[in-house]
From TrEMBL:
Superkingdom in the source lineage: Bacteria
Domain spans labelled HTH luxR-type: 144-209
Keyword field: DNA-binding, Phosphoprotein
Record-listed 4-aspartylphosphate modification sites: 55
InterPro entries on file: CheY-like_superfamily, EvgA-like, NreC/VraR/RcsB-like_REC, Sig_transdc_resp-reg_C-effctor, Sig_transdc_resp-reg_receiver, Tscrpt_reg_LuxR_C, WH-like_DNA-bd_sf
Species in which this protein is naturally found: Pseudoalteromonas ulvae
Any GO MF annotation of the entry: DNA binding
SUPFAM superfamilies: C-terminal effector domain of the bipartite response regulators, CheY-like
Name this polypeptide is given: DNA-binding response regulator
Domain Response regulatory: 3-120
Pfam families attached to this UniProt entry: GerE (PF00196), Response_reg (PF00072)
């Protein structure tokens, strides 16, 4: 029996995607998560998953961080990103950072089945209209992915709040931790990213933002 994990915060879309998959694949077990932390928990519980279908803008996923983090921790797990955006820069980054497939949410059931089948067979898959447009990443971007992968989810949350311009005490409030803990996280972030101040850290965080964000979620 095949095992898939659908990680998306929209229950109606999860249900529709699950229906499309079950009609195309016999003896299929589908797990579901609606945020990044729940996704990580399910990945730990089910170490024989055949496929992760990952929504880029699910809560906690923080654009590219979720993909980079999961690819680092589970290098053998096939990942297909399911997204409402078809912006070629987004698609290029997603594929370069380790996704094996990119399935637009506007895809038909037949296209979803085709994409999933290709990924399960070890191939990469993109809609035909996007294949010739996808570009590779620079060496700098590849190095950035390795740095970001070294951050823990909590450290990345702190980095995201730095990017939003929050002060240490505001970050502490948002994460329900002490200011001393925030400072410790920031020190670790600076070390892992090879930077020396907030401005440099924020510039790195900006490179991970996916624009335009056309999804409703």
């Amino acid at each position: 029996m095949s095992q898939f994990l659908i990680a998306d915060d929209h229950p109606l879309f999860r249900e529709a995607l699950k229906g499309a998959l079950k009609s195309a694949f016999a003896e299929l077990e589908v797990f579901e998560s609606d945020n990044f932390d729940a996704t990580l928990d399910l990945l730990k519980q089910h170490d024989e998953l055949d496929l992760l279908l990952l929504d880029l803008h699910m809560p906690g996923n923080d654009d590219l961080y979720g993909l980079i983090r999961i690819r680092e921790d589970y290098p053998e797990l096939p990942i297909a990103v399911v997204s409402g955006s078809e912006d070629i820069q987004v698609v290029s980054k997603v594929m370069a950072y380790g996704a094996m497939g990119f399935i637009p949410k506007s895809s038909s059931s037949a296209e979803i089945a085709q994409g999933v089948s290709a990924v399960l067979e070890g191939d990469t898959w993109l809609p035909s209209k996007l294949k010739d447009q996808v570009a590779g990443l620079s060496d700098d971007d590849i190095g950035l992915a390795a740095q970001i992968a070294s951050l823990t989810p909590q450290q990345y949350r702190v980095l995201s709040y730095l990017h939003e311009g929050l002060l240490n005490k505001q970050i502490a409030y948002e994460l329900s931790i002490s200011e001393a803990t925030v400072k410790a996280h920031i020190t670790a972030i600076f070390r892992k990213l090879g930077v020396y101040n907030r401005t440099q850290a924020v510039l790195i965080a900006s490179k991970l933002q996916l624009e335009p964000q056309t999804e409703s979620n």
